[in-house]
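Next comes the chain:
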Amino acid sequence: MLAKRIIPCLDIKDGRTVKGTNFEQLRDAGDPVELGKLYAQQGADELVFLDITATVEKRKTLNELVKRIAHEINIPFTVGGGISAMEDVSVLLQSGADKVSINTAAYKNPKLITEIANTAGSQCVVLAIDTKKEEDGEWYVYLNGGRTKTDTKCFDWAKQAVDLGAGEILLTSMNNDGTKAGFALDITHQLAVNLPIPVIASGGGGKVQHFVDVFEDAKADAALAASIFHFKEIEIPELKQELNNKGIVVRI
């Protein structure tokens, strides 16, 4: 059985790590490279760095930051934010990123997924989906950092992305994000069970039991969290040991 992965996420704004609730009310959480080094030392399996204002402000992800991260950190890491063309991907991979996360640009130009997969390999393509459960009980795709609603259902877009060549889905529930009340188990389960690629659950992790639930009940391949790690509410070694004690396969 493949080990379940624990992935700290560092949302970056103006070169600093920030964290909010439901995509708003951002507060500073420290230097992304220093935090990343700490998490690597503590046993994180991978890291995700997201430049959260790049798409909105029409900036490209900070390439210099990626070089610093690659120089300092010895575990795989994914970079996202403002990636809209193969040229952006090439620069980031050459600077040391292992994977790229694409979201809004992929939705607007689905061929970008195939282009990256054909050029760099499907394993490099992480499709990030920000999704929100609406009053009709359906989960819909949101764009531009959660600012723009679409009429596309989350599962439909995820399935299309797999067909186009995506190698992994990073699924963030906007309803759960930053609440520390648990992951969105229903939509995570739907994707994890029905898609042939790994699904990373994001949004809502607040205590060890939430990670147990998302792995055991929702069948996620990996779980991503931010503020509980940034503000030392749960330490990664402690989390992994607890998961191991409950029979969940993790890399200790």
Notes: The chain has ten helices and twelve strands. The domain at 5-245 is CATH 3.20.20.70 (TIM Barrel).
